[in-house]
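Internal ticket - ligand job 232, PRP:
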Amino acid sequence: MLTIALSKGKLIESALDLFRRAGYNVAGLSGESRRLVFACPEIGVTFLIVRPSDVPTYVEYGGADAGIVGKDVLMEQDSDVYEPLDLGFGACRISVAALKGEGLRDRLSSKIRIATKYPKITERFFNERGIPVEIIKLYGSIELAPVVGLADRIVDLVETGSTLKAHDLVEVEVIAQSTARFIVNRASLRLKHEPLMELIRRLRAALEPRASTLGNGRPSTARRGKKKAARA
Ligand code: PRP
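stdout (structure tokens):
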């Protein structure tokens, strides 16, 4: 039996569609339900429905053998997991945005204040450019921060751009692109090699042509090589 953690919210319907296209019967499974665990014994999978930011934790520590989560979350968390498939859906970008026409002239002598739910990505990005920033961590509705004067800039996901537009914000710079990824626990890949490879093979075959295979199943981040005992 494999345990797979799915991100609740925007990615779940596309993830379930992918499993259907790959020939897995996921009837009865829904992101709308209050249930958090769906056992599908006929396909040998138990699905967990968790917050997107918790998916890498479940997979890294072996609470789930595999998971589906956005690259944005993986970049922020620097998780020590295998990332064998770019699933292509959930495409968006992590961008810096500001109020239209707003300069930084008033704050040139002090740090730029940036509101975001991605403090690590933000810190890395501005550190690399030698720009001192003060990061204000928020958990949602980031676009509000510049509107009420809480921050000079935001770093947030942009998909259609309509949330930015609705708040008179413009994209200043794109930090990174993001799509949904299939991730796998390192120990599970050894201990449940065959069922996981079969699942990866079927998901890959069901992907849209624009999605691609990433690397050769090596860990996704700079933490590659870190010896962490993953509980399978
Ligand atoms: C995400 C993101 C933006 C919005 C971007 O928010 O944080 O606010 O979607 O999408 P758009 O470019 O198509 O407008 P989400 O809906 O996940 O809610 P949140 O603000 O609570 O994080």
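Auto-summary: The pocket of PRP is lined by residues 140-143, 156-163 (CB under 6 Å). The chain has eight helices and twelve strands.
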